[in-house]
Design brief:
Helices cover about 50% and strands about 10% of the residues. Strands 3-4-2-5-1-6-7 form a seven-stranded mixed beta sheet, sandwiched between helices. Helix 1 crosses helix 3 (about 40-45), helix 6 crosses helix 18 and helix 11 (about 185-190) packs parallel to helix 12. By secondary structure, the protein is an alpha/beta fold. It folds into two domains: about 5-65; about 70-340, Rossmann fold, CATH 3.40.50.300. The longest helix has 16 residues, at about 270-285. Pfam families: AAA_31, HTH_31.
Length: about 350
Amino acid sequence: MTHAMSGEELRRYREQRGMNQQELVSWLNDHLGRRYDRAKISRWETGSERIPQTVAAALKDGTRPTGIPAAVVAGRAPLVFCAANQKGGVAKTTTCVNVAWLLGREGRRVLLIDCDPQANATVHLGIDPHDREVAKATLTHALRSTRPMREFVTPVCDGVFDLLPSSISLAATDRELLRQPNGTLILRAKVAQLAGHYDFVVLDCPPHLGELTVSVLNAADQLLIPTQTEMLSMMGIPQLFETIVAVRELVNPRLEILGILPTMYSPRRLQDEQVMADLNELATAENLRLFSPVRRAADYTKSVMAGRPGLAMNANSAGAESYREIAAALLALHPVTAQEEAGRGA
C-alpha cells in the first residue's frame, strides 16, 4: 500500500522536477482524468488537505495509478446510472452520492451530475450552488454551452469522484426543453461526449416526472427506483413504468431497470412491513431485483451537514450493505475489459 505523502514531500517532488503548480495540475489531470486546480495543490502542500493515495501513487511511480493506457480507454462509453421516482423524499440523492463514492473508491472514474434544480447533491457534497452559478459552472450552463461538459465539473471528496453541480437556474431549463426541438435529447448528447473520460456517470433526478427527468431517462443505461416504505411513495412506481416503456420505444431502447430500493425502512412499523411485502410482490411480477432495504438512520443527515457521503464518514452506516449491492451490480455490468486488465499489468 502506498504510504501517505506529506505536503512537504509533494512540494519537493514538484520542485525537483522543475514544475510549477499549474504544470503539476496539468500532469495530474492528464494522468488521472481529474479536474484538480492550483488551489488544490496549494492546500495539499500546506497540509490543510490530505493528499489522496491515488495522487501519491501516480507521483511516486510516474504512471497512471490504474495502469490503463490512455489509448485503450479513449473511446469507451461510460455506464450511465440514474435514480428516479416521481415522489420526493425517497433518498434518491443519498443513494446517488453514496453509490458514486463507492464506485470511485473502487478506482473507477466517476462523474455525478446533479440534475435537480434544488441542488441537493451539490449541497450534500459541500459545494455552494450560488457560487457555482455565479461562476457559470453548473448543469444549466453546461447544457447551453458548446464547450465539453467535462469543463464544468469539479472534484469532490478529495478527488474520489467528480461533480457537475446544479442550482435553482435549472428550473428554467426544464421549461426551455419543452420549447426546443429534441430538447430532451440534449443531456444525452452531452453525456456521450464523456466517452473515454469516465467509467460511470451517475444522474440524480428531480422529484417529479418533468422534462429534466425524461432527459435523464433518455440518457441512462440503468435506472434504480428508490421508494420509501410507505404507500404514497410506492404509488408513483406504475406511472414511472409507463414513462420507461415510452422512453424505450421512442428514444432509448437500452434503458434497463436495475431494481427497486426500499428506503427509510423501519422493521418495527406495521406499515413498513406491509409495503415491503407489496414491493416484493411487485418486483416478482415485473422480474426485478429488490435490493436490501435501507433503514432509517441519523448518519445520512449528519453527512449532509459535513458535506460528505454518509459512507465516507461511517462505512457501516445503516444501508451500507444496500449501497454496496448497487455498486457491485453496476461494476458487474461495466467490468474492466481484457485490454484494460493487460494495461494494469503493463
